[in-house]
């Protein structure tokens, strides 16, 4: 079993193995290239497709961005991310259509064991000691707005038509049609027609 297969199987893996370092290095270099380009440069946005697992035809990243693998992230149509999108996609991340992310949003599909010896002293076949990780997928539905400074942890499912309030730390699933916020983030109430802002037109 390869290290990447271990990730997808939910097992401990060694993120320092060359197999994984090579994938990440390519993505990190492309993120750096993207971040150095002017936002009006027409060659900027197509860079995303060079490392992404899948993304729709219409998308926008304000930048700067940082993906870990990139190829483990799958995004639908009409995606928008504001400044400082951080995507730690060791585990797979699935994002639906019409999703908006505010500034400083982090999707964190990776974790470490709690027991120190398991986290920093795991020995592998070749005898070296590694920092061990494991990963859980993140699923984000359609028509979701994730406001600024939100952290979404691995293993979380966010339903359709959800709004995640600013500064939230999402550790549990959020059902469809809810506004949710807090640390830890909790569903507060269902979004209704009373929330309409059409009167501001």
Summarize the SSE layout with pairings.
Layout: H1 3-8, E1 13-14, H2 18-36, H3 47-51, E2 59-61, E3 65-67, E4 73-75, E5 79-81, E6 85-88, E7 93-95, E8 100-101, E9 106-108, H4 116-120, E10 122-123, E11 129-130, E12 132-133, E13 138-140, E14 145-146, E15 151-153, E16 157-158, E17 163-164, E18 169-170, E19 178-181, E20 186-190
Parallel strand pairs: 2-5, 3-6, 4-7, 5-8, 6-9, 7-13, 8-14, 9-15, 13-16, 14-17, 15-18, 17-19
Antiparallel strand pairs: 1-12, 10-11, 19-20
Quick overview of this protein structure:
With 201 residues, this protein is α/β, with parallel strands linked by helices.
Range of helix content = 10-25%
Strand order of the largest sheet: 2-5-8-14-17-19-20
Q: Which CATH architecture is right?
A: 3 Solenoid
Anisotropy-based shape: globular
Give the number of helices. Answer: 4
CATH homologous superfamily label: Hexapeptide repeat proteins
Radius of gyration over C-alpha positions, nearest whole angstrom: 18 Å
Note poorly predicted spans: none
Strand content range: 25-35%
Q: What CATH first level would be assigned?
A: Mainly Beta
Number of strands: 20
CATH topology: UDP N-Acetylglucosamine Acyltransferase, domain 1
Kindly give the count of domains. Answer: 1
Largest sheet descriptor: 7 strands, mixed
Mean pLDDT: 95
Q: Span between N and C termini?
A: 57 Å
Short descriptors:
single chain, 201 residues, alpha/beta, UDP N-Acetylglucosamine Acyltransferase, domain 1, 7-stranded mixed beta sheet, 5-stranded parallel beta sheet, 4 helices, 27% strand
